[in-house]
Amino acid sequence: xxxxxxxxxxxxxxxxxxxxxxxxxxxxxxxxxxxxxxxxxxxxxxxxxxxxxxxxxxxxxxxxxxxxxxxxxxxxxxxxxxxxxxxxxxxxxxxxxxxxxxxxxxxxxxxxxxxxxxxxxxxxxxxxxxxxxxxxxxxxxxxxxxxxxxxxxxxxxxxxxxxxxxxxxxxxxxxxxxxxxxxxxxxxxxxxxxxxxxxxxxxx
Length: 204
Description:
The protein is of the alpha+beta class. It has 3 domains: about 1-35; about 40-70; about 75-200, Roll (Diaminopimelate Epimerase, Chain A, domain 1), CATH 3.10.310. Helix content is about 55%, strand content about 20%. It has 6 helices and 5 strands; from the N terminus they run H-H-H-E-E-H-E-E-H-H-E. It has helices at about 1-30, 35-70, 75-85, 115-130, 160, 175-185, and strands spanning about 90-95, 100-105, 135-145, 150-155, 200. The protein has a 5-stranded mixed beta sheet with strand order 1-2-3-4-5.
C-alpha cells in the first residue's frame, strides 16, 4: 500500500516538473520571438521602403533629364563625357563650321597595364562624345603617363566616325582593342580637314 502511494506521488512530481519545463519554454518563446503583428509590421515597412525606392527612381531620372534639357549642346557633350570618363584634366568643346570639336586631356594613375588603361580611356571618351548624336567635327584626347609624358593621342574625325552605324557608339561589346584597331585602319595625315582627320600617336 505504501509503495503505491509513493508511486502516485512520484508520478505527480514528474508531471509537475514537465509542466514547469513546458511553461518555461513557452515563456521564452514569447519573450524572444517576434509576434505575428511584429513580423507583419517589419514586412510592411520593408515593402514600403522598397516601393519608395521604385517610386523615386522615375522622379530621379526625370530630374536628370530635365537638367540635361536645360544644358547647351556644348554642355551636353561635356556632361556625357564626364559621365563616362572621370578625372579628366581638362575638356574643351567649341564650334567650327557648325560642328563641335571636342578636345580633352587625361593623366593615368600609376599601375600595371598602362597602355590598356589608356586605350580604354580613349575608347570611352570617343564613344561617349559620338553617342550624344550631336554634330561633331572631331574628337581628340591626349592621355599622359603618370610621369606627365604623353603616352597616347587619339583623334577621330566625323567623316570616319560616320562610316559606322549610330548604334556603334553605345555598343558595350566594342571594346578598346577593336576600337584602336579601327582607328589605326582609318588613320590619315589630313590635318587641314578637321572632319576627316583621324590619327593615333602611341608612345607606350
